Each structure stands twice: as structure tokens, then as C-alpha cells.
Backbone:
């Protein structure tokens, strides 16, 4: 199934951003998602679908969850885990998360030198709608 033009554009931007993460530094799915005005899970999906050649070409393993966890185990084509690759760069992985806290290695997407301007997030339709039934006509019992 062919991907849409929008998906292809976002995929290209995600890969360009990830390529800009320097050695021994990390960014998050959330930071990239906020920069591109997409959901973090879309960023994670794009990175989970990389072919072997791309996995060898870009540092996909330098992107982690907002809490510093590595998520589901991932490997490069050589069989090295994400934790193995990070530890080779001097980061410490304890359990399934970087240690100490993520803040010690984190670079926000906007601070990376990828050249992709931040995307404005469209106003959500839900934000303009009343919540919890506010401003709805009240039904009268027994009427």
C-alpha cells in the first residue's frame, strides 16, 4: 500500500531530525512530534518501520520515550540492541531506561541542527466545543 504525500513528508523530516542527534545525546519521540505537530506515536511508528540499510545510516537508537525508557526491544541489522548502541556511546542503560535521568543527555528537537522549522499545531476542533455537556439545553423531567 502506497503511503500518502503527507506521510512521506513527515517521514523525511523525522529521519532528517534523527540524523542530527549528536553522539552520546538523546531526543524524544515527544520532542520530535511537538516540533513537527504530529503525535509522538507517529514518530515511533516511522522509526519502527526502518529498513536495515536506513538503520545503519541514521542513529535511530538515540530517540527514546519522554521518561527515558527504551520501550520495546529494538535491534540493528547486526543484532545489537538499542541499549548496546547507546552504551557504546558512553550512556548508561539500567533496566530499560537511560541512567541517570534523561535530562543529562537530552537535546530538544528545536536545538538540533536539522534545518526543519517547527510546524504550527492546528487548533483542535475539540478545543472549540463545549465540554461535559456545558451549554446544552437541559431536559426537564416529567415534561
Residues:
Amino acid at each position: 500500500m502506497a503511503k500518502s504525500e503527507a506521510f512521506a513528508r513527515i517521514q523525511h523530516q523525522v529521519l532528517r531530525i534523527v540524523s542530527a542527534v549528536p553522539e552520546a545525546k538523546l531526543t524524544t519521540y515527544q520532542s520530535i512530534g511537538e516540533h513537527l505537530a504530529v503525535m509522538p506515536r507517529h514518530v515511533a511508528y516511522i522509526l519502527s518501520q526502518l529498513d536495515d540499510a536506513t538503520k545503519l545510516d541514521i542513529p535511530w537508537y538515540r530517540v527514546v520515550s519522554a521518561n527515558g525508557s527504551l520501550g520495546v526491544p529494538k535491534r540493528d541489522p547486526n543484532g545489537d540492541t538499542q541499549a548496546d548502541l547507546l552504551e557504546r556511546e558512553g550512556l548508561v542503560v539500567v533496566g530499560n531506561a537511560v541512567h541517570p535521568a534523561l535530562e543529562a543527555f537530552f537535546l530538544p528537537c528545536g536545538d538540533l541542527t536539522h534545518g526543519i522549522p517547527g510546524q504550527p499545531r492546528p487548533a483542535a476542533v475539540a478545543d472549540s466545543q463545549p465540554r461535559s455537556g456545558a451549554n446544552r439545553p437541559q431536559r426537564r423531567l416529567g415534561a
Summary: The helical segments are 5-19, 29-36, 40-48, 52-57, 82-88, 125-128. The longest helix spans residues 5-19. Residues 68 and 74 are 15 Å apart (CA to CA).
